[in-house]
User: Fold this.
Amino acid sequence: MSASTAELIAALVGRGELVPPELERRKDLDSRRDHLIGVNLIGLLDLKIKRNGRVDTAWGDKTPVGLARTVRRIMEGDTL
Assistant:
């Protein structure tokens, strides 16, 4: 992970959004972190959340976790 990616992740996680109970119970730190990042990305980008809690993207609809992981892959130069 590049320094700029790590800095962005730290800034997004530091905003302190709540984690859904299903992620809290799993104690899956990567999923919890990605959820926080995804929620903050949704807010920063002013994305519309659908009734099912997902947002539409060019790569399909995403949960906050999926959005965070997709953005991370793009920033790291992976192809989709």
